[in-house]
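Worked example 3. Consider a protein that binds uracil.
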Amino acid sequence: MTERIQKLLAAAGLCSRRTAEEWIAAGRVTVNGRRSRVGDKADPETDDIRVDGRPLRGAAQHVYLMLHKPRGYVTTLSDERGRPTAASLVRGCGARVYPVGRLDLDTEGLLLITNDGDLAHRLLSPKKHVDKVYYARCRGTVREGAAEEFARGIRLPDGLLCLPAELTVLSYDRIQDESEIRLRIREGKFHQVKRMMEAVGCPVLFLKRLSMGPLVLDENLKPGEYRPLTDTEREWLEQL
Ligand code: URA
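Given these inputs, the predicted complex is written out as structure tokens:
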């Protein structure tokens, strides 16, 4: 069956569709020896599709892993300062996989790791507004009305207008002067949770991602551990 070439490259786990389009436009992709153009279709069963001269061998197996990212790990694939990468924790999985989206060095929690570029693209698309839920411990007490401000969509001091978010104050420890909160956001701007909490005067001391869309962090996973997604979890993601 013929499919658009960018979709085939993403389905083979090589890259996202957008990146595939860039590769095609840059002339890196050939079909039966001819340079392909963005929008061309091909049949992975019968056509010889190559990227940089290397054949795309059928639709590679997709791998979907749930990692409990520990603090102290970067979510980029390499780090110029030599800090450990989250991807290195799943090196034994037998596929070239990468994290979907970013978590800060000092954030822990749910990180989806896959070679399904198409899914990564859907999950991260700003148009999709996939929910992310975080638990945080913050300095100070959350001021009255903060939840309502978040629900309307706050403007950060640097001018960024956040989409409506759901803030729940879980507890306040008077002795430590620390609050525990849960925050559900629908976007993933740089340091978003930290910036939002800072804006209401409660700097984040500890941050953990609990869920992303339908995926919920498996609390049986200790920081640094991972497991493949279950069939049900994969089906949920397919529906996004
Ligand atoms: N928001 C942050 O501030 N940091 C993260 O790592 C994720 C969301």
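Take a moment to read the result before moving on. Residues 103-104, 107, 191-194, 207 surround uracil (CB under 6 Å). Residues 76 and 85 are 7 Å apart (CA to CA).
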